[in-house]
Amino acid sequence: MKKAPLIIGASLLSFGLIGGGVYAYQQLSGGSAIEVQPVAYISTSWWGDVNESDGYVTSDMTQEVMLQDRKVIKEVLVQEGQQVSINDPLLVYDSTLVELELEMQRLTIESLKVNIDSAKRQLQKLNSTQPIAKSEGNPVTTMPVSLTRTRTTEGEQEEVLTYATALTPLEDGTYSLEVKASAKLNVSFLYRLKGLDEVGQTQISQPIQLSLTLLSDDGSQPMIKVLDGSSLEIPAEFIEITVSDYFKESIPDEPEQNQPDHEEKPDQKPEEEPEQPTCPEQPVCPEQPIYPDQEPEEEPDISPDLPDLPQEGYTKEELAQLIQEKKTEIQTLELDYKEALLKEEKIKKEIENLTVRSSVNGVVKKVGDPSVGSIEGSAFIVVSSDSGLYLKGTLTEYQLNEVEPGQMVEVMSWDTGNSYIASITEIYPYPVDDPYSYGNQNVSKYPFVAYIEDATDLKNNMSVSVRVQENVENSNALYLDMAYIGDENGRKFVYKVDEDFRLKKEYIQTGKVIYGSYMEILSGVNEDDQVAFPYTKNIKDGVKAKEMTNIWGTRYDRKYSTIVKRNLVP
pTM value? Predict the structure, then answer.
């Protein structure tokens, strides 16, 4: 009767193998499935904010044109007694200063673009840099390490200007440095002045202008030379040379050698000495001839393994800090870039508004003298209406930059019970008190004038209700719940379902935020997609997705984009 225990043991073993196989399959196939939501369920649309306030109808409308500060009149286009209609030009300001400001702003934008691209290349280089190990005996020193690098030659230390040389910044944006004329000038130092990387291949920063003070060995008779990285030319064969030889200047620290002590006769040739080939210190140097009375000189060992030479590079911790600082710099530059674009649009709008137009149908009552301008704050041009009805209302400070002349507003009269459409003709740039408007009373209100084309049954001084809807460039834009949008060092992303019904990390472009919880999607997600909560435990690329369900067993069918039912009872 020993078969029963054997059968039971075999069964348990089989179940264990099956369970382990299922677990292994789940792990290999991406682990537990993560529930996803259809974008259609967690998104919304937006047609702009609506401002409701009270206004009144008037037939006695007067337009007063005040001259703007810091602007010069180019031409006055009307005269007293002239009949004008809505949108007729009254005067034009000179555009010279504003166009110059626009050009300077465009240069600022281009400069920011260059700086952003340069910072991104530097970040890419840092990301591809391999960290170096810390040395217990000789701690690693990151660049820049010191004023100059030194190397030992026959018991003496000579200065070498390298890529790591620290420079002293000046208030005017240039740099300065003091160095002995006998110091060595390495080609990598010139690369740095030109804004190149250490091997002179890639432009990573703006060129540097350096004021170099040359000192003789005794520190006297300084000589100042200026190196401008933007115009610096580096010979192809240049490796390293002394600073004095680079500038080809005679530094009076030693008497000149090989000077003849007598004049040479025309028919007498000077004694020719064997020519000593000059070769700057470089990794590969042609062999020099050896003369009988000359012993071969030993090349100084400048190997980086010497204890007095710092190992150039970054540790893992230092590299991580540099990467984070560079990311922060890029984020700041991108923010400055967006602000510069907004300022550019503001200047463009100012150029469009250099022509002042009539906001009423009427007669010009007053025109000032352009050479005198406005006197004591009085209006330069006055136009009085002679026909039609106008609406006077207010806008909030938030709508001031969104609503423009020519936009339509809805007018509702409780006396007539009718609705009317009015076209905004003028928006005043100064705030007023409006105790009758709805909403937050702490928000500033700006008056506007609108012309009512069809004013049937309306009368002068009649109170009306006004609805002003903000202009929206794209009313079909998609706004996704921000809970489903992840952030990775300033880059927005979502986890959405791919064609294999697995999750894939997708970086997206976003826009404005509405209602404090929905973000505009410019690219990367559409209404037919399904997305997961980006901070779900164990979420990653390739994880299997699971369709959303509720307590009634309802799920979203991704094929037909409809709601279907399924039986959850096994």
Answer: 0.46
